[in-house]
Design brief:
The complex is a heterodimer of chains A (355) and B (245). Chain A has eight helices and 21 strands. Chain B is 71% helix and 0% strand. Classes of the chains: A alpha+beta (355), B mainly alpha (245).
């Protein structure tokens, strides 16, 4: 019951030609530079690109095939646009019910009250949509899409048009979705933080072509891809809550390869969490350094090294079964004798504990 | 600046027409004049209705198409805005004449012919506001409606129509009011058949020709007040700024 996409669209000079398959649930991030065809891909899947050719199959249903094209309004698709497209002549409730009443047949994906609750819309339900803030409008748009009983949710940079504060407010709602949804989500974004926080899988689309696809934890640390080289580069690893130091308000997270203390609210022991460790928060050292301000120190092994500008290199590291990435100066590379296979210590300054 | 202020004409028209009355002892409003008023209102209402009906798909196409024919077609539709109505009427008369392309329909000097002429004459006043209000509806709203399961007709009735309501109000009022004021076209293709093609503007002209100013005042005043109220309803409503003329 997965999603199968193998499509081509030509728009003037630009050609999008991609083929991939994604699992039947979970968030799949679609990332890549602007103008690379990410939005065109979503529009093609939704049936909004009339010239698209190829195959789109969702949960066993044909949406696009040779000589066959299911019109958009018959595709069980939820689409969340970059800037919300709510209907200004309807209040929030009637906006929410727009898709539900038109595509409500069969079993509901989620109950109305659950969706309202999930996206925190109780207090907005009787308001006019024109009076809502950008973040509120986007929450209504997401709820509207979910209530139309989609078998696939497409989100096209849902946070890009929001200011920083609204973005930080919206993100927890998306995280809640991630665990509540039984349908696959294709989530277009530029922001690696969103990829790390929300997605399990990732597609990288550059200049109309799929240049990489796979697990987020792997792709974010691959040295041949742009993600490991930027300022926001970082790795995502899976960990679980192991211990708590109530005096210092620190929680110990263990992962296959080491442990890290993070400042956090108390969490039940055994809780699974995702950690995002930024490239710039890792220091490499030849010896463990217990007398430092670091939150974690563990053994790592160099997997590969790649150039990154005139004075720096990016290093991909294995810590147990997890992979990390960090950027060091060429001098450090020489002094620490960095080379594939070299074992040393990673000192971690800070981490972001994700859901 | 010569000529009296429009409002003073309004007062004068009503005052003279309704209070002093004509010099003769005949009733102020003759059955003929009432009939002319009825024909005028019927013509304006039918013209507006038909133009809204046919203008909607046309305006929709104009608002959305990238076809190269859009420019020439827009110019053609706008022609009645600039052409003297007599010129328009002349061509319509030729078209409806025995040798014209519409000759077989014997439309000249009939109400149907007048209706067709009025539709041509008032076309831009209906199509342009509709086109503008359709153009203001974002493609994304329609895409969103599609993704929420609304088919083409459903999209039109549940999204386009409510969002384009200001355009429909403006188009209806302008189309109606502009048809009320029709003279040249009627003169050319309608003639002056009482109960069939004799409209208020023609009746006024006739009254003035025979120096029956009293009757001319009553009819003119009625048209003036009606038109003013119609326009007032457009310009003072919240959609007023979107009106085109």
């Amino acid at each position: 019951m997965s999603i199968l996409v193998d499509v081509g669209v030509i728009k003037g000079e630009f050609e999008l030609k991609v083929a991939f398959e994604i699992p039947s649930n979970g968030f799949t991030a679609i990332s890549g530079p602007s103008g690379g065809g990410k939005s065109t891909l979503l529009r093609t899947i939704a049936g909004l690109e009339p010239d698209a050719r190829g195959t789109v199959q969702v949960a066993g249903e044909r949406w696009l095939a040779e000589g066959y094209r299911l019109p958009t309004h018959r595709r069980a698709v939820g689409y969340v646009f970059q800037s919300p497209a709510l209907f200004p002549h309807l209040d929030v409730r009637r906006n929410l019910l727009f898709g539900r009443t038109r595509r409500g047949r069969g079993r509901d994906l989620l109950a109305f009250d659950d969706v309202v609750d999930l996206l925190g819309l109780e207090r907005l339900i009787d308001r006019r949509v024109t009076g809502l803030s950008g973040g509120e409008q986007q929450r209504v748009a997401i709820a509207q899409a979910l209530l139309s009983n989609p078998r696939l949710l497409l989100m096209d940079e849902p946070m890009a048009a929001l200011d920083r504060a609204s973005r930080e407010t919206l993100l927890p709602y998306l995280e809640a979705l991630q665990s509540a949804l039984a349908i696959p989500v294709l989530y277009v974004t530029h922001a690696l933080a969103e990829v790390a926080q929300l997605a399990e899988h990732m597609l990288l689309i550059q200049a109309g072509r799929l240049t990489a696809s796979g697990r987020v934890s792997e792709l974010l640390t691959r040295l041949d891809l742009p993600m490991a080289h930027g300022r926001e580069a970082g790795a995502v690893i899976a960990a679980q809550v192991a211990d708590r130091d109530e005096a210092d308000r620190l929680t110990r997270l263990d992962f296959n390869g080491g442990q890290i203390w993070v400042p956090s609210a108390p969490l039940a022991t055994g809780t699974q969490v995702r950690l995002r460790i930024l490239s710039r928060d890792i220091t490499l050292a030849a010896r463990p350094d217990p007398d430092s301000s670091n939150l974690g120190c563990f053994r790592v092994r160099v997997i590969a090294i790649a150039e990154c500008g005139p004075a720096e290199v990016v290093v991909r590291l294995a810590a147990g079964e997890e992979t990390l990435v960090t950027r060091v100066s060429r001098r450090a590379e020489r002094l620490l004798q960095l080379a594939p296979g070299r074992e040393l210590y990673a000192l971690v300054r800070s981490v972001a504990a994700l859901a | 600046m010569s000529g009296p202020h429009p409002l003073s004409i309004l007062t004068l028209g009503l005052g003279l027409g309704l209070l002093t009355g004509p010099a003769s002892s005949e009733p102020l409003v003759s059955p003929d004049d009432l009939q002319a008023l009825w024909v005028t209102l019927k013509l304006a209402a039918l013209t507006t209705l038909l133009l809204l009906l046919f203008g909607t798909p046309l305006a929709w196409w104009l608002a959305r198409t990238k076809n190269r024919l859009r420019g020439p077609l827009e110019a053609l539709i706008a022609l009645p805005l600039v052409l003297p109505p007599t010129v328009l009427g002349f061509y319509l008369l030729l078209a409806m004449g025995p040798q014209g392309p519409l000759g077989g329909l014997s439309l000249a000097f009939t109400f149907s012919g007048l209706l067709l002429g009025s539709m041509v004459y008032s076309l831009p006043f209906v199509v342009q506001p509709l086109r503008d209000s359709f153009g203001a509806i974002s493609e994304q709203s329609l895409d969103a409606a599609s993704c929420l399961g609304a088919g083409p007709l459903n999209r039109f009735f549940s999204v386009v129509l409510p969002l384009a309501r200001p355009g429909y109000v403006t188009a209806s009022v302008l189309g109606f009011a502009h048809t009320l004021g029709e003279f040249g076209v009627v003169l050319m293709i309608g003639g002056n058949i009482p109960g069939e093609t004799r409209v208020v503007s023609i009746a006024v002209y006739e009254h003035v020709e025979v120096l029956d100013y009293g009757r001319a005042h009553v009819l003119s005043g009625a048209l003036l007040v009606l038109s003013f109220i119609l326009l007032l309803s457009v310009y003072s409503s919240r959609f007023g700024r979107k009106a085109i003329v």
